[in-house]
Every structure is written in C-alpha cells, then in structure tokens.
Amino acid sequence: MHLYFSGIGGAGIGPLALIAKQAGYQVSGSDKQDSDYLAYLKQHGIDDVHVGQDESGIAAIHQKLPIDWFVYSSALAIENPDAPELKFCQANSIKATKRDELLNQIIKDKKLKLIAIAGTHGKTTTTAMAVWAFKQLGIPLSYSLPAKVSYGEMGEYVVGSEYFVYEADEFDHNFLAFHPYLSLITGIAWDHPDIYPTKEDYQAAFSQFVKQSEWVGLWQSDYDLLGLESNDHYMVLDKKDAQLSLAGAVNRQDAWLVAKLLAELTQKSLDQIVEIMNKFPGVSRRFEQIAPNVYTDYAHTPEKIQGALQLAHEVAGNNVVVVYEGLHNTRQHFIKEQLRHMFDHIKQLYVVPSYLAREDPNLQMLEPKDLVGLMSQYAPAEPAKLDDGLKQSIQAHADMGDLVLCLSAGGGGSLDEWLRQNFNS
Q1: pLDDT higher than threshold 70 for residue 425
Q2: What pLDDT digit, counting tens, does each position of 114-163 carry?
Q3: Fewer C-beta within 10 Å: the chain N or C terminus?
C-alpha cells in the first residue's frame, strides 16, 4: 500500500510516516518547507518527499506509483479545505483521511494494544516517560512521539511488540477516533475554545474518551470532575502519593502515572519502576537547556505555565526571568485573566509577539504591549522583540546567574527557533 503524508515534516505526521515505513508500507509525502527533519526521514529510507504542497508535486509522485491513501493533519483541512493536494485526491478518487484512521489501521493490522496518553497538559512528557520505562525494562514497544528524545526515534514499529504508545490529542476531537486498551489522563482543564465552546463540551469529550477505553488511569480530581462512577476499569490516583526525586512537581506526577501503569501491566516491582522514572532524561522543548542558564519550554496553557514556573523556581529560587511567546492570539484572549497574576513572583518578564495560527479574524490582535498592560502591578513586565536587544538582555541575566525560562510556541519563526539560532552552544 502506498501512503502519502501531507505535512510529513511535522511532529505528528512525521513519526507516523516513519512507523508506516518500518511496518512495511510504501511511503511518500510533502511539506511546506525543507527542514532537518526531512533530511532525517530521507536517512531512514523516506526519500520521495516533495517540498511544497501543490498539485504538481503530488501528481508526479502519483504518476510514478499510484497513491492508495492520503494522510493529513487536522490543521490542513481547517486552514485550507480547498488545499491543492486534497482537491487532487478528490479528482483522482484517492482515499483521504486524518492520521488517526491510518494509525487505527496499523494497530489493527499489527494486532497491537493501544496505550493512549491524553489530557490538557503533560501528554508529551508522559508519553516520552512511558517509552523510556518500557525501553529500560526491556519490553518491546511500538510508539509515536511528537518530540525528540535522546533514547530513541520519534516513531518506531517493533516486530513482536504487544503495545503501541501514543499521545492522543483532544484538538479537533482527534482522540475520539480511538478505542484504547488503556488510557492515561494527565489532567483536564478547558482548552481549545475554538473547538469546544464551553467547559461542558470539553469535559463531555473526555467523558466519551473514557467510555471508549477498556481501562483508564487518572487522578482523583479528574475522576471527580467527570463525575465518573467507581468500577474495575479505573485506576484512580492521588497526586500526594507521587513520591519521586525528579525535579518539578508536574514531572513527578506524570512519572507516578506511568509507574503505576507499568506496575499493573508488567507485574514488575513498583520500586524498580520508580527508580527507572527517577532517571528519566527529559524530552526536547520541555525545560530543555539551550545554553547555560537559558531554557526553552512549550508551556502555553495556564496549567503548563504554572508547572514550568514551579520547576524553574525549584531549580533557581527567586532568580527566574521569563520570556513569553503566546501560542495563538485566540488563546491569549481566552486565558488573559489567568495571565494577570501568572508572573507575579518572577524577577523580570519579557513579552514577545504571539505565534499565530488558526486565528479568529474577528478578535483584536493582542500585541506585546497589550499583554503587558494586562499584567498585575506585581509582574515586572516589558514588551520585546526577537532582536539583538532581547538577546543582550537574556545573556546579561544568564551571566548574572538568573534562570531564563523561555515559554515558546515552537515552529518556524518562533521564539524557540530564534533561541536555537542565537544561543545553542
């Protein structure tokens, strides 16, 4: 079967393409721009990739070997329902679906049991922790990761593996495409108001996801929030029991979820698994050190920001400086009241322009000065740009021994990319 992946350089589509290749499918694809990840895919045998998502590219690949299945991300259909590649598939009767349907097919074909990691925050880290633990225990595992790690590929299919670990995202109701063998829910707090207009809509989606899962591990607070009734299919945990030595309260909680899961699945000693989790080496863009005293973190919801700040204060005490890049202007409107006191206890806050995608054109564009104006009197904040002035300020803070935490959306033109170009040593 010939699979064509649109947006193959992305964190969600790319690993799935790699998995499909390893599982024996013919793989090709396209992306908006060239990248290091496209070079990485070529090194792993996926070399039929077109840069540019136009009709000519997909037509040329289809002519060489007819495409059986066109796989795309939610963003493609939302941002451009008349995308040239989609129109080509319609004109040529090529099956076209989001990635979830293909992943379900692979899981079915290879007789795998899906372990889905869901939740508003902590999904990527918890998924990476699960992969780390399985590998350290020597248990064969197939998985997909939306971030780079030091101990494996971003996507891997292993012949003979029983489980497939996957980050199940609630955006665009994606996670409702699955019926997992086991689901871990890291935490629930209303997000994606463009998809879920009310808290009730958001919680209803998670309730449905729970019903679709054979077995669920979750925190007592989320169990109560969803109004679940006790049965043998739930592993309900208390955050106070998360006794690990990892830095960061959120990391300790995520690791405890994984440890309890694996103790149940593998019948291994909980103490042995906790010891493994305490050695977790981390994941890219989650409190990742770019240069001495300079860190990048993907935190973009209030809960994620609070978790990143807690870890920064745990490491550096009161000497914490933040550079904030909001992810989506729409979200800044949604969380602006929560942002007001978010940075009250840091040394200095720099606010750079938000990273824009899937925006509501009817909303006022909140510039850095507008977000600074929303902050309380206790937050020492100033607007900034990704320029030499900010670079000098970051370096000066780092030289003084401050921990500079850069909360970045990531992607082309983002604060994260700018940091790597200017500070990565």
Answers
A1: no
A2: 999 999 999 999 999 999 999 999 999 999 998 889 999 999 999 999 99
A3: C
- SS3 of the chain: the string is CEEEEECCCCCCHHHHHHHHHHCCCEEEEEECCCCHHHHHHHHCCCCCEEECCCHHHHHHHHHHCCCCEEEECHHHHHHCCCCHHHHHHHHCCCEEEEHHHHHHHHHHHCCCEEEEEECCCCHHHHHHHHHHHHHHHCCCEEEECCCCECCECCEECCCCCCEEEEECCCHHHHHHHCCCCEEEECCCCCCCCCCCCCHHHHHHHHHHHHHCCCCEEEEHHHHHHCCCCCCCCEEEECHHHCCCCCCCHHHHHHHHHHHHHHHHHHCCCHHHHHHHHCCCCCCCCCCEEEECCEEEECCCCHHHHHHHHHHHHHHHCCCEEEEEEEECHHHHHHHHHHHCCCCCCCCEEEEEEEECCCCCCCCCCCCHHHHHHHCCCCCCEEECCCCHHHHHHHHHHHHCCCEEEEECCCCCCCHHHHHHHHCCC
Q: Mean pLDDT, the chain, as a whole number?
A: 94
- Asked if residue 88 lies in contact with residue 140, where contact means CB atoms within 8 angstroms, the answer is no
Residues 238-277 pLDDT 10s: 999 998 999 999 999 999 999 999 999 998 999 999 999 9
In the numeric block, the tokens 């079967």 are attached to 1
Instruction: Report the percentage of the chain scoring pLDDT > 90.
Output: 88
- What does the angle CA 134 – CA 136 – CA 142 come to, to the nearest 5 degrees? 35
- Gap between the Cα atoms of 386 and 322, Å rounded: 14
- What is the Cα–Cα distance from 214 to 116, expressed in whole angstroms? 11
* Cα–Cα nearest to 304, from 182, 189, 425, 208: 189
Alpha-carbon radius of gyration of the chain: 22
Q: What is the pLDDT of residue 30?
A: 95
331 near 300, Cβ under 8 Å? yes
The predicted pLDDT at position 371 comes to 97
